[in-house]
Design a protein that fits this description.
The protein is α+β, with helices and mostly antiparallel strands. It folds into 4 domains: 218 residues, FAD/NAD(P)-binding domain, CATH 3.50.50; 88 residues, D-Amino Acid Oxidase, Chain A, domain 2 (2-Layer Sandwich); 35 residues, no CATH class; 107 residues, Glutaredoxin (3-Layer(aba) Sandwich), CATH 3.40.30.10. 29% of the residues lie in helices and 28% in strands. Strands 1, 2, 8, 9, 10, 11, 17 and 18 form an 8-stranded mixed sheet that branches. The protein starts with 6 loop residues before the first strand and ends with a helix. The relative contact order is 0.12.
Length: 523
């Protein structure tokens, strides 16, 4: 068994998707870490089932778009049915704003295997199963982690940062005494994962029944997930018996016990930790926030946390950036994470109306909106889903944009681009660190004269977008509509953060001064 380090910059606790994604990001940034997992091996449970476009973009940063995501199972949208079996609402695929489909159905054990393989490729030996964190002491700008090894012995690791990705029942959060605010649904749900399913459609189906709401979700490898709300007086263990499940599944598929991959009862939560950071300990993923499943955002929220935190930790470790920049994690992520929780709650109100009055209200509302299709689509197609945008944080002039449609504070689009006669996604040119993206001859000249290749210890790429296709040395968007938001800054240069959010926009003559100003914000 390999020895545990005595001193290492980062300790990640929890080898779920959030922890392993954080590990892969730190590895590509060049930061040493150890990833500790209490369990003796992978859980291999199909919990999360949906990967969204933002999450896929994060995985792209360390190459999973070329392997795991090379043949995705893209979703075709969702349908909502009433008690009579009528489809009263339908959503489509939606645009590919960030380079990937908005919904990709996954089998979580396969995703986790891909992540483990990538961790091992990037940082051999960094993932340690059977490593139980017993205690964390903090003092003088560092933390000391006491870990129990598989043989029962204890070891202490001194570290600069502890990233707690240890789940919804986070022992680290509990030891810190950080409460979770919010609500827990009164209704439990049965979740059944199947294989060899006769329904091969790539559409999520919500049966918004006034008696027992149900959900049917596509899954890879010919599978499907079914969810059934428990009714008052129904006991979870009894409802998992074969005879009960056979009756529940009867309207959807034939009963074959050998096709049942998993059956369990879930309690849904809409809760958030009252703080995300305690000195050198940072709560991430389910340890920081718990989301009802109706919008498919639980795991994806954790991937957003990973991308937000990893580059800031890297900036501190690699360049000595002020550790206070990690306060921006909570400042940036708290409101968007809560907005996603509220989106899931709103969808839950459609899927499982609480009583006949709410059901009648929903139906009357949809009927009343028939003469107003745009408003009805805005509601039914969940277009009120928050854009990936931060209203505060590590940005320049976020409160005083020059242009109304400024990208500063937003995740920038990822259009396909042509370069040297080959088509690729934009992020392949942004690479893993910071990037400067300019448009126009003045911006191109300014970027060509810039010799700086790193910012806060991370690579700084220099790119030029040219919508005309005349500049053979530039990147030409193949779909100008997808790239159109960049045209707001057609005479400017954008500074893009490693998590693909626009940190600043400035004119070419201000290039060096603006970079220095941003470096000052990190100092």
């Amino acid at each position: 068994m390999a020895a545990y380090p005595k001193d290492i910059p980062v300790v990640i606790v929890g080898a779920g998707p959030t922890g392993m994604t954080t590990a892969c990001l730190l590895a590509v940034y060049g930061v040493d870490f150890i990833l500790l997992e209490r369990d003796r091996g992978p859980m291999n449970l199909p919990r999360a089932i949906l990967l969204d476009d933002e999450g896929a973009r994060t995985l792209q940063t360390f190459g999973l778009d070329k392997t795991y995501l090379a043949t995705p199972m893209e979703g075709d949208g969702a349908r909502y049915y009433d008690d009579d079996g009528n489809c009263f609402a339908e959503t489509g695929r939606g645009p590919r704003n960030f380079g990937f489909a908005k919904r990709q159905y996954i089998f979580q054990p396969e995703l986790e295997q891909a992540l483990r393989d990538r961790v091992e490729q990037l940082a051999p030996g960094a993932l340690r199963f059977g490593s139980d964190v017993l205690d964390i002491e903090q003092a003088d700008g560092h933390a000391t982690v006491t870990v129990q090894q598989p043989d029962g012995s204890e070891h202490k690791i001194r570290t600069q940062w502890v990233l707690a990705c240890d789940g919804g029942r986070s022992p680290i959060r509990e030891r810190l005494g950080i409460p979770m605010s919010g609500n827990t649904y009164e209704e439990d749900w049965i979740v059944v994962d199947t294989s060899n399913d006769p329904d091969d459609s790539r559409v999520s189906k919500f049966f918004c029944s006034s008696t027992r709401p149900q959900v049917s979700i596509p899954a890879p490898n010919g599978g499907r997930r079914y969810e059934f709300m428990l009714l008052p007086g129904e006991a979870g263990e009894t409802m998992l018996e074969d005879a009960v499940l056979k009756d529940l599944l009867a309207p959807r598929r034939p009963w074959r016990p050998e096709d049942i991959l998993r059956k369990t009862v879930y309690t849904f939560h809409a809760r958030m930790a009252e703080q995300f950071r305690s000195e050198r300990i940072i709560l991430m993923g389910d340890a920081a926030h718990l989301t009802p499943p109706f919008a498919g955002q639980g795991m994806n929220a954790g991937l957003r946390d990973a991308h937000n935190v990893a580059w800031k930790v890297a900036a501190h470790v690699l360049s000595g950036a002020n550790p206070a920049i990690l306060d921006s994690y909570e400042n940036e992520r708290r409101n968007p994470a809560w907005d996603m929780i509220q989106l899931a709650v709103a969808m839950g109100s459609i899927v499982m109306p609480a009583g006949r009055d709410q059901l009648i209200f929903r139906d009357l509302l949809l009927e009343a909106l028939d003469p107003f299709p745009k408003v009805r689509d805005y509601l039914i197609q969940m277009r009120f889903k928050p854009k990936p945008r931060y209203d505060t944080g590590l940005f320049l002039d976020l409160d005083a944009p020059i242009y109304d449609a400024s990208l500063v504070g937003e995740m920038v689009p990822q259009p396909d681009v042509m370069a040297n006669g080959e088509q690729s996604r934009l992020d392949e040119h942004l690479e893993a660190g910071f990037a400067l993206v300019g448009q126009g001859p003045d911006a191109a000249a300014a970027l060509q004269s810039l010799t700086q290749t790193h910012l806060a210890g991370l690579p700084l790429a220099h790119l030029v977008l040219d919508f005309t296709g005349k500049d053979v040395s530039a990147l030409t968007p193949t779909n100008p509509i997808a790239a159109r938001p960049f045209l707001t800054h057609r005479d400017q240069i954008l500074l893009i953060r490693p998590d693909r959010y626009c940190a600043a926009a400035f004119f070419p003559e201000d290039l060096k001064a603006s970079i220095a100003k941003y470096e000052g914000a990190l100092a």
